[in-house]
Amino acid sequence: MGKHAFKNLSVEMRNFDTVIQELKERGDNVRAILKDAANLGAEIIIDVAEVYAPVPGAVAKETVMSHKDVAIVDIGVSKKKWWAKFFEVGATPHEIKGTKMPLVFEGDDGRIVTWMVEHPGMPAQPFLRPAFDGQKDNATKTVGAVIKGQVNGH
Fold first, then answer.
1. Helix, strand, coil proportions of the chain in percent (round to 5)?
2. Would you give the distance in Å from CA 44 to the centre of its chain?
3. Is 80 exceeded by the pLDDT of residue 135?
4. What pairs with residue 65 in β-bridges?
5. CA-wise closest residue to 143 among 47, 35, 19, 64
6. How many angstroms separate the CA atoms of 22 and 27, rounded?
7. Domain boundaries in the chain?
8. Burial class for 94, CB neighbours closer than 10 Å (0-12, 13-18, 19+)
9. How far is residue 126 from each of residues 24, 52, 78, 152, measured CA to CA in Å?
10. Is 54 within 8 Å of 87 (Cβ atoms)?
11. DSSP assignment, residue 51?
12. How high is the pLDDT of residue 65?
């Protein structure tokens, strides 16, 4: 995902220091618990984004653990559906040129072979940002419930 992930979309959980310390003292795998909680929270956002995505499978996530007890889930456009990013942010009019080979695509009147086309651009039709904005509170509550459930479940 890398540069196409929306890393600036984040939910920060605070005041879990006591809970995390209690889990550590019990010998629980805190990193695994945090990672699971973060993934479950992210899935709430992803499920909504997929409903509005231009094609199925346009949304992907990457989960990483920082050096501290922090789980980070990047949600963005999948590498396989890279072009879906243009729906999120839009595109200005531009030329598309064939470099080593001509461009070949199906047009209204059959197959078209050309070295250059003028793309008219397109307005943004966001699906990631609205999903995040609409579901971040639910995602945060889910993360908190998972972590608190680990404390109460033992």
1. 45, 25, 30
2. 11
3. yes
4. 71
5. 35
6. 9
7. 2-90+125-153, 92-121
8. exposed
9. 40, 8, 15, 39
10. yes
11. H
12. 77
Q: How far is CA 134 from CA 48, 67, 75, 126, 128, in A?
A: 9, 30, 15, 13, 10
Take residue 52 and report the two structure tokens written for it. 């509005």
Inter-residue contact 78 to 59 (CB < 8 Å): yes
Q: What is the mean pLDDT of residues 120-139?
A: 94
For the record, the structure tokens of 146 come out as 């998972």
Tokens of 84: 């879906």
Residue 131 CB coordination number (10 Å): 24
The rounded distance, in Å, linking the Cα atoms of 99 and 54 is 28
Structure tokens at 94: 């531009």
Distance CA 13, CA 53 (A): 27
Beta carbons of 108 and 81 less than 8 angstroms apart: no
Cα–Cα distance for residue pair 115/104, rounded to 1 Å: 9
Confidence check: pLDDT of 127 > 80: yes
Residue 3's pLDDT is 46
Distance CA 40, CA 44 (A): 7
Which amino acid, 137? D
